[in-house]
Amino acid sequence: MKMRGFQYHRPSTLDDALALLGEHGDEAKVLAGGQSLVPMMAMRLSSPGQLIDIGAVAGHDAVTEADGDVIIAARVRHATMEASEIVRSAAPLVSAAAPFIGHRAIRNRGTVCGSIAHADPAAELPAVALALDARVVLQSAKDRRVVDAADFFLGYLSTAIADGELLTEVRFPTRAKRSGWSVQEVSRRHGDFALVGTAVQIDLNGSGAVARAGIALFGVGSTPVRIAAAEALLVGHRPTAASWAEAAATVAREVDPLEDNHATSAYRRHVAGVLTRRALEQASARAKAKVKP
Amino acid sequence: MTTSHLADRASDEPDVDLQPLRFTVNGTLETLEVESRRTLAEVLREELGLTGTHLGCEHGVCGACTVIVDGDAARACLLLAVQVEGASIETIESLADGDDLHPIQEAMREHHGFQCAFCAPGFLMTLKALLDVEPAPTRDQLREELSGNLCRCTGYASILDGACAAVRAIQAGTNNA
Questions:
Q1: pTM
Q2: Cα–Cα distances in Å, from A280 out to A133, A166, A177, B44, B106?
Q3: Which of A105, A119, A246, A262 could form a disulfide with B73 if both were Cys (CB 3.0 to 4.6 A apart)?
Q4: Are A55 and A10 in contact (CB under 8 A)?
Q5: Position with higher pLDDT, B7 vs A27
Q6: With DSSP H G I counted as helix, E B as strand and the rest as coil, what are the percentages for chain B, rounded to 5?
């Protein structure tokens, strides 16, 4: 497999990267870790004319916590996120997704922001961003805007990122004191993209009732999907086996999975329900135990 | 039958983009000029003659091309060579010292860890990167850490035995030192 040629750029500052993006518009593609983009280019599914490598951009490689958010900058690799104590304690659903992302060698190079910008509907982090009501920061040479995850994933590998914009950070809200989380997925082989998966977080109030629930499915359509009807069933009640079974049944009813040569739509629908039930069971146990992961 | 569409595709290729590249490979500083679209695996094999790094699937699934980049295992087929500007790379060629095998290689050999051995460079470099930071992994950890490498002879049990033996050998060596 030989990729099409391109003009390579290696800016050393974010401003230079944004200037290049502004100059080249839709001809340009941003290269961070390249763990999705490089194989797509090798298979000529993507053939950008200009490749802007942000690998040498100074800074933008740290996980920080501010204003109630865990902030993951553009160059933070999955492996860095996976090892981050900040992420583990304040955004544990993000940590929980890490072991499912490819394999170690992929996580050593691939980036969190890159995965979200790539928006593969079967990937874990876009669903995690959706379940947590994360926000992404999109920066261009002229402007900076913050987009809710709910408004970000527009279609298959398609996002709200406009020409000239770079996804400079993703902000995951810090978890509530009493919260529980879970990532569950079924894939053909460990490390593959999921056939179906779910990312769940529930927050409990002082009396043990669900104050907020986020249930996002991946691998069931052209984007990750939140299942608001299932979340609504949980909010205001103490989580019980009956309530998570009911929510799981709602998920199985609401999703409309695609059929491909790996799995039928009916199989994916069934598995979506089963995984949701398991995820809610684990999330509830974690929320009630109040234990750190 | 016309072949004009083939000609069109060829003429559609942009100008060759050559980029300077300085990086360290197995302790030697290399200064090259490479086409930006070439992968690290291609440059190691074709420019530097280091054909020990094997290319299997060429899209990041099989792990055969795994090398170590600044201490971390990485797929050489999923990196453009230009991305490793300034980095330090270790390939399979760095493991043995002349005819003296590295303890990891020796342990694999003793346990018949490889059959056709096409996957061997990837397994060995994945294991090397792991043991450099985690010298005492359990068998379960090894199973997980090696899960990104495929062996089409399906010799996984022997490979895992060899990996466990390598851990023991390295620990014994460290204790004796």
A1: 0.94
A2: 18, 35, 17, 48, 48
A3: A105
A4: yes
A5: A27
A6: 40, 20, 40
Say if the Cβ atoms of B78 and A55 lie within 8 Å: no
Nearest residue on chain B to A37, alpha-carbon basis: B78
C-alpha A21/C-alpha A183 separation (Å) is: 35
pLDDT of residue B9: 52
Complete DSSP assignment for A37-106: HHHHHHTTS---SEEEEGGG-SS---EEEETTEEEEETT-BHHHHHH-HHHHHH-HHHHHHGGGSS-HHH
Q: Nearest residue of B to residue A54 by CA position?
A: B83
Q: How confident is the model at residue B12 (pLDDT cuts 50, 70, 90)?
A: low
**Tokens (6 digits) for A55:** 């690998």
Which chain A positions have a beta carbon within 8 Å of B69's beta carbon? 108-109
Tell me whether B133 touches chain A (CB under 8 Å). Answer: no
Mean pLDDT, to the nearest integer, of A33-38? 96
pLDDT value of position B99: 93
CA distance B115 to chain A (A): 23
CB contact under 8 A, B17 and A39: no
pLDDT-derived band at B63, boundaries 50, 70, 90: very high
| HSE-CB for A176 with a 13 A CA cutoff | 21
The answer to whether B14 contacts A2, with C-beta atoms less than 8 Å apart, is no
CB proximity B167 to A under 8 Å: no
pLDDT confidence of residue B10 = 54
A206-239 residue pLDDT tens: 999 999 999 999 999 999 999 999 999 999 999 9
Question: Quick one: pLDDT at residue A191?
Answer: 80
Region of B26 (left: φ > 0; alpha: ψ -120 to 50; beta: rest) is: left
Considering only CB atoms, A5 lies closest to which of B14, B74, B83, namely B14
How far is B97 from chain A, CA to nearest CA, in Å? 25
Phi, psi angles (nearest 5°) of residue A10: -135, 70
